[in-house]
């Protein structure tokens, strides 16, 4: 008889644990690459939000009493540095929390937030909300996650710890915080400990194996001006990100062509350092200062010009990243340039005959225009 009773108790315990797992609900909200705006109509965000708000309103009393914790996890990749990925993830988490606070009448204290550099089940830019309902307050029917791969109930069970049903009560929340992929567990018994838990989750997630630090990598971008390449002038550059908003560039060009038995010539070399300040959170637009210097030898008509130039000015443009590591830089600079040169012609024998020495010209206007292909490497590649 005792054996039968023991077996029945074990079965009841297993059923209670399985039921506890099913009560935990996961909601996923997706964000556009490099954007921090929460677009509700995008990628089923609206449907997920309606279901979540309905669940929160149903259990609002238990949530405000602290019996049902709400876990917010932000995931981000594609930013230049580890720190910027965490910052973008935090902004997106706050966007989702603001929407839930506005629609469900909650407060910041009802959320436990952690942000991560990395992806969630191959989703690069998402915020997940996990609602963990204790045993004694469960009256929620199972949700259908068949239309969303990331919210599979089997994966959710595997991502969360199992505890005896007797320990899961309305008055006392579970003592484990389980986060998908970049996972950490923190105790949670009092409001003071809960605040410590949030900071601990954020700090531990930075060291998670799933999102390694980029301290050993130098954030660089390689550049190629497509307009110069179109004129058969090889052009390459490198950009170093001193900070998330400040970068230093160096572009170089060189070419040497002649035709018509060397009666026509097009040759030059150019070096152009530049300092940029990227604007805003997304850092697409920028302003900066540039300097350029070089030498040239043009003879496209009967008279040729050979000399050197130097100058500087202000720059501005827009960076469009169509992939996490690839983008197009639309760039324009304007300022002052001074050129000093000699003019010459070629005799029938090929001897150069100089017409004017030490001529000069001062120019104010457009210094350069570029459509540049960008490839982010090192600390930039996420």
Automatic annotation (TrEMBL):
Keywords in alphabetical order, please. Signal
Q: Where is this region: Disordered?
A: 140-215
Q: Where is the composition biased (Polar residues)?
A: 174-192
Q: Name one Pfam family in it.
A: DUF3575
Ranges of Low complexity compositional bias? 158-173, 198-213
Signal peptide residues are: 1-20
Does this entry carry the keyword Signal? Answer: yes
Protein name as annotated: DUF3575 domain-containing protein
Q: Which source organism?
A: Bacteroides stercorirosoris
């Amino acid at each position: 008889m005792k054996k039968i009773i023991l077996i029945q108790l074990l079965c009841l315990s297993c059923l209670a644990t399985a039921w506890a797992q099913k009560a935990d609900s996961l909601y996923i909200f997706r964000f556009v690459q490099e954007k921090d705006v929460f677009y509700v109509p995008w990628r089923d965000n609206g449907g997920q939000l309606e279901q979540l708000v309905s669940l929160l309103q149903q259990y609002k009393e238990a949530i405000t009493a602290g019996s049902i914790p709400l876990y917010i996890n932000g995931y981000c990749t594609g930013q230049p540095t580890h720190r910027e990925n965490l910052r973008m993830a935090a902004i997106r988490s706050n966007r989702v929390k603001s929407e839930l606070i506005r629609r469900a009448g909650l407060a910041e204290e009802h959320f436990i937030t952690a942000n991560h550099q990395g992806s969630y089940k191959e989703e690069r830019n998402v915020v997940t909300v996990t609602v963990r309902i204790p045993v004694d307050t469960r009256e929620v029917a199972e949700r259908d996650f068949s239309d969303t791969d990331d919210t599979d109930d089997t994966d959710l069970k595997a991502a969360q710890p199992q505890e005896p049903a007797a320990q899961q009560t309305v008055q006392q929340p579970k003592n484990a915080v389980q986060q998908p992929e970049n996972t950490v567990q923190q105790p949670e018994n009092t409001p003071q400990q809960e605040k410590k838990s949030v900071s601990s989750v954020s700090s531990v997630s930075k060291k998670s194996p799933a999102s390694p630090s980029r301290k050993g990598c130098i954030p660089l971008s390689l550049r190629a001006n497509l307009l110069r390449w179109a004129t058969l002038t090889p052009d390459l550059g490198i950009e170093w990100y001193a900070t998330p908003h400040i970068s230093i560039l160096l572009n170089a060009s060189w070419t040497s062509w002649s035709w018509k038995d060397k009666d026509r010539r097009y040759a030059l070399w150019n070096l152009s350092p530049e300092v940029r300040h990227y604007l805003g959170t997304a850092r697409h637009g920028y302003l900066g200062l540039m300097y350029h210097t070089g030498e040239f030898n043009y003879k496209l008509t009967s008279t040729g010009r050979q000399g050197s130039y130097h100058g500087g000015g202000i720059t501005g443009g827009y960076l469009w990243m169509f992939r996490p590591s690839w983008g197009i830089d639309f760039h324009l600079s304007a300022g002052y340039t001074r050129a000093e040169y000699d003019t010459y012609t070629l005799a029938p024998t090929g001897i150069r005959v100089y017409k004017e020495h030490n001529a000069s010209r001062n120019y104010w206007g457009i210094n350069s225009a570029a459509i540049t292909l960008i490839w982010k490497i090192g600390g930039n590649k996420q």
